[in-house]
Every structure is written in structure tokens, then in C-alpha cells.
Amino acid sequence: MAANGRRRGSVRLVHLLLAVPFAAMIAIGFYNRTEPAFAGIPFFYWYQLLWIPLGALLLLPVYLAEERARNNGADVGKGDRA
Amino acid sequence: MSAGINATASAVFIVLFGAVTILGFFAARWRRGDLSQLNEWGLGGRRFGTIVTWFLLGGDLYTAYTFVAVPALMFGAGAIGFFAVPYTIFVYPVLFAVFPRLWSVARRHGYVTAADFVRGRFGNHTLALAIAVTGIVATMPYIALQLVGIEVVIAGLGIHGELPLVIAFVILAAYTYTSGLRAPAMIAVIKDLLIYITIIAAVIFIPAELGGFAKIFAAVDPAKLTIAAGNAANWGGESAYVTLALGSALALFLYPHAVTGVLSSSSRHVIRRNAVVLPAYSLALGLIALLGYMALASGVKDMPAYADGFARFGANYAVPALFLQMFPGWFVGVAFAAIAIGALVPAAIMSIACANLFTRNIYKEYINPSVSGAGESQVAKIASLVVKVGALFFILALPQSYAIQLQLLGGIWIIQTLPSVLIGLYTRWLNPWALLAGWASGIGAGTAMAASLNFKGSIFALHILGVTIPCYAALSALILNVTVSAVLSFVFNLATRGARVDATGSADYI
Questions:
Q1: Interface touch A56/B92, C-beta < 8 Å
Q2: Which residue of B276, B294, B506 is the best one to mutate when testing the A interface, meaning the one whose CB has the most A CBs within 10 A?
Q3: Distance between CA B459 and CA B102 in Å, rounded?
Q4: Is B439 part of a structural domain of the chain?
Q5: What are the pLDDT digits (tens) for B320-376?
Q6: Residue B216 counted as domain residue
Q7: Which of A67, B231, B301, B339 shows the greatest Cβ crowding within 10 Å of its Cβ?
Q8: Closest residue, chain B, to A77 (C-alpha)
Q9: Do A28 and B241 touch (CB under 8 A)?
Q10: pLDDT band at A10 (very low <50, low <70, confident <90, very high)
Q11: Does residue A16 lie in a domain region?
Q12: Does residue B485 form part of some domain?
């Protein structure tokens, strides 16, 4: 672990993105209302539905960062390949 | 409609069900492996790539019961039922960050279950037994509830009696026995196609027919359209909503069937990739939840044609009634087949996961330690049959409410394995006896909270410093569990000077 500390560090920072959907969903005081509605759908519903694709999009840079880190050599040969 | 059998719908339903049955038996030949080994029968040889894992996990996590119960909750209780959406949003970052570690260590050491891992990590077979038993007990009522999904749609077709349900389950048991995890993996592909076709048709066709989403939401009692707002003294429904979503998400991947799905993938990258693409299902689930409101707007509740169904199944009949009302007969057959097949996939995976736990962590550990690989696989096949017969008995012999209450308790129980399994993936600092004490206190407190609610609900109001905080009992019991585990670990570690038996090394997790 210590040997590749720098790589781990940069990967970890990107990991903060994983917390964003959590924050968005825990902030229920913000989205627990009906206005503004979108296409007849109250805010409460479309806000949460919108966070499904947003949550997936936020995972993407984390995934790519880990892929890059792997291609830089650290994890290869540890049963990590598809 | 309630009087006679819906012939067109039934014919389409039976044809689709038959096709899936053939596929289930054929699955034994797919990516052929030696099915007399537990690794092959119970984990598909750990060879499933990104696409198969996507179908398998999707089929596993979004069960028929979900498709029936989530809209039913929206139909009956309103906005609180939408917790299924934040729940799935919480799930994927956890899957992404945590579970590749479990995959790696399981691959390195040949672990088939979460209890295998705990046994290796903490070198304590009592703790491993507690984890295994919790998994089996929490999953059994879950399998029983899948049957409710099948039962509801069979009744919706106008077919009476319990024979069709028994036939469906015998078929399921037979192909799970012969094909192992390969059967649900293959059937999951068909299930998903049918589910997606149904959902897309439903969200395009039904709102158009009912006059748009504004009309649909207008049919909902305004008080139920959002969560009861909280204030400084009482956090109201808002804390209940968020803790319900969070607790359910943390519990999800501790369920044996989810662990089985994760461990059967061919690499940790398959798991990460799936965490990115699985949310496509969440979108479907969100739309399915809204079917509950569409059922309200369609007025099926007061139509005499559906009175029998609602009398028998309550709100769980909302979606079948909506489909019967809105769709032509042949498409009702497709939609109902989607739900019924959607029950078979998770029921198969759950019974396999329970069988793996029994074989590895009870039979091999306590009954016959010298069992051969082929013997293990044979025991697991028989165990999977016993589990399914048990579930069938459960549904036919006991009131349905027992299964629902036990499933609710199952969620509270399974989350108590989190410190041993999830925290265990990161640190060996926790002492196994402390973890066992934490597990027991979490199960005790969680069960007591549910009992105080007469097992009718799982939202228990905590009173902390004069503030009332309604909280999902699983989550508050987990906090107690983690606290007990940590405090006792500190004490025990001082007493034992931190001596450990750990079969795994830190490099095994990467």
C-alpha cells in the first residue's frame, strides 16, 4: 500500500464524487415539495428520478480514474483483468 | 373479468413461461463446467462477464415482489413508497467502492459465501455460523414473497386454486437443481426484455390514456404527495424516509443472493462497470413505482371487476388490476409473464445462495468436514430443494402477512452482519467476540423495536435529547451494533494484546 501511495491518493480524491449522490438524497428538506413541477410531475418525484442518471454519471470519472491507475501498472496480474 | 379465465392473456403467459422453462434446463450446457463442483453449480464458475452479470444482478435485486410491492405502497401510502428511488441511488456507490474488495479476497481464497470470508478473516467459526444463519433466515421469507408475486398475477389471469403456483415452483426447483446459477443467469435475460417492454409500454400508453402526468398526480391525496414535513422537535416522516432508503441500501448487498451475484462475476472490473450501468434498472424501478399512482388515477379500486382481487391481495393487486384495465389481453399476458418470470430469477438465486451457506458454513463446518467437492455440490443441490419447499409451505400454509412481517424482520437482521462483512473488508481491528456481541445486541434491539410496532412497520421513533426522530429500526439497531462491537473490541484487544488469526493479507483485497 505504501509503495503506491501517490497513485492511491489521487484515486481517493476522485472517490469523493461517490458521496455526492448521498448528499443529494439526504437533503430531503430541500426536495420534499411539489413545486416546481416538470411536465406535470411534482418536484419531489422528478428531482429523485433525475439523480438516478446523475449518480451513474458521477461514477464514471471514478471508474475511469481507477482504470487509468490500473493501466499504470499497479494492479495488473493480481486477478484484476477481465 | 373476475368471473372467467382471461384466455388470450393466459395463453401468452403459458407460452412465455414454457419457453423460459426450456431455457432453464438448457442452461446447464451453457459455458459448460463441471456442475458437480460447488464453485460451478453455485457460482457459475465465477465466469460471468459484464453483460451476464448485469442481467443476473438486475434480476436478483429488482425482484417481482419489488415490482408488486413498491407501487402497492405508493398506491396505499403515497410518497413514502418512493423511498425505493433514493435506495437504489445509495446502492451503487457502495457496490462500486466496497464489493470489488470482497470479490478479490473471495477469489484468492476460494470463498463462496460472506460467512466463508468472515471465517477466514477473523478465524472464529461461531461468528461465521452467526453470519450464515442470519443470511439463511433473512432470505427464506424473501423467497416466499416472490411466490406472492406469482400468486397475484395468476389470480389476475382469472385462474383459481393453488395448483398453478405449485407447478411453477416445481419447475423452478427442477432446473435450479440441474443447472445451478446458470439457469437464473440465462432466464434473467428474457425477464429483463419482458420487463422493459412492459415498462416502456406502460409509461407511454397509460399516462396518455389517463390524460397526462398532471392528471395522474392530481388523483393522489395532496397530503400523501410529499413526505410529512418535520420540525426541530420532531423530524417527522423525512428522517423515516431517508433512513429507510439508507438502511435498505446497506442491507441489500449483505443478502446472500446479492453476494452470490457479485462473486459469480469474472473480475472486479465487471463489478465496477456494473455499478455504473445498473442504474438503468433504477430508472425502471422509479417508473414502476409511479404505476401505483396510475392505478389510483385509473379508478380500478372501485370497479366491481377487481373487487375480488383487492379483497384477497389488498394494495398488491393495484398493478395487475391497472394492467387488466388498460392493456389488451395479449399484452396483459406479456406483462404478467414479466412479473412471474421476474419472481423465478431471484427465487432461484436466493435458494442457491442459501444452499451455498448451508453447505459451506454449516454442513462442511459442523457435520462432515471431510466432504469432497462433488459431495459439497450434491448437498447444496438438495439444500436448494429443501429451501424452496419450505418457502412454498410458508405461502400455502401460513397467512401471507407472516411472510411480509418476516421479510421486514429479515432486513433488520441481515444488516447486523455489516460490521463483520463490510467493515471486516477494511480492518481486522475488530475482535470476533466483540462482533458477535454487537451482532446479538443489534438483532435483539431491532427485533424489540419491530415487536413494539406489532411487526406492522419498521419505523421506530427514537427520543434523543427531547427530539423525536422516526428512524428505520434496522439503521438504529446497526448503530448500536457498531458501537458495541467497537467498544468491546477495544477492551478485548487490550486483554488479548491484539492476537489474531487472519487467513487473509492486505494484498488479497486489491
A1: yes
A2: B276
A3: 31
A4: no
A5: 999 999 999 889 999 999 888 888 888 888 999 999 999 999 999 899 888 888 888
A6: yes
A7: B339
A8: B510
A9: yes
A10: low
A11: yes
A12: no
